Amino acid sequence: MKGGYIMGEFVIESYDDLCDESGFQFEFRCEKCGRPFKSEYVKSRNVAARNKNEKLGNAAAFLGGLFGGKAGELGDLIDRGSDFANEMAGDRYEQEKQAAFEAAEAIAEKSLSHCSRCGCWFCSDCYDKKAGMCKDCAEEVAQEERDRRQEAEDRRREEEERIEEEKREAEERRREEEERAREEAEAAAEEQKHICPKCGARVPDGMRFCGNCGTAMIKVCPKCGAENDRMNNFCQECGAKLK
Ligand SMILES: [Zn+2]
Ligand SMILES: [Zn+2]
Ligand SMILES: [Zn+2]
Ligand SMILES: [Zn+2]
């Protein structure tokens, strides 16, 4: 049965109410394994009084039934009196029960521990004293902690990879920039070959003399007579120094 009784400062949920009309007993259980902790049976002090009232009530009803009239009225009166007495006894029973429960829970508290996470009560086998939690909760918390650490580690690695990737991209851009600069320099040098060194006119590809001023756009090797690019310092055919 589920209850709202307070155990210590916490609510205990799992217990059986084994009380009967003449006494009180409660059975608390470990939420996990169900191991029971039964309180000792405590007799109600009001039982004797209540039994007497019930007998009186029965006698009154009997009298009323037997004689009617005056005796019946008397019977009703006694009956009402015993009803009232029974109500009182009932209240006292509830008070006694509450007190018995509190005494029982105080003893159960020595055997059961409260989990600070799920709020239930557990026997020593199912409770992790160090964690202050039931073993299931302690394991879940430990797992969550492991997950958190793993996530942090993953994030750190991703960040490292991102930085590494940025470095690679920057290096790639730098190389492309160098390549373009080199190509531009080569193109400029190539273009320079077609400019007449004397008058600055542009001489089309393959032409040996400037069409504007007649300057030679090639160097003829003095040794083998091969035609060399005018930028060459040595003959590409024989290796002789060019002028
Ligand atoms: Zn247990
Ligand atoms: Zn728990
Ligand atoms: Zn020229
Ligand atoms: Zn030569």
Task: Write a brief structural summary.
With 243 residues, this protein is α+β, with helices and mostly antiparallel strands. The protein has helices spanning 47-67, 69-111, 135-193, and strands at 6-7, 10-11, 15-17, 23-24, 26-29, 36-38, 42-43, 113-114, 121-122, 127-128, 133-134, 218-220, 227-229.
If you had to describe this structure to a student in words, what would you say it looks like?
- This protein is of the alpha+beta class and 243 residues long.
- The chain folds into three domains: 6-129, no CATH class; 132-193; 195-243, no CATH class.
- The protein has three helices and 13 strands.
- The chain has helices at 47-67, 69-111, 135-193; strands at residues 6-7, 10-11, 15-17, 23-24, 26-29, 36-38, 42-43, 113-114, 121-122, 127-128, 133-134, 218-220, 227-229.
- A three-stranded antiparallel β-sheet has the order 3-5-6, covered by helices on one side. Strands 1-2 form a two-stranded antiparallel ribbon. Strands 4-7 form a two-stranded antiparallel sheet.
- β5 (26-29) and β6 (36-38) form a beta hairpin.
- It is rod-shaped.
- The protein starts with 5 loop residues before the first strand and ends in a 14-residue tail after the last strand.
- Residues 1-8 have low confidence and may be disordered.
- Residues 221, 223-224, 226, 235, 237-238, 240 line the site of one zinc ion.
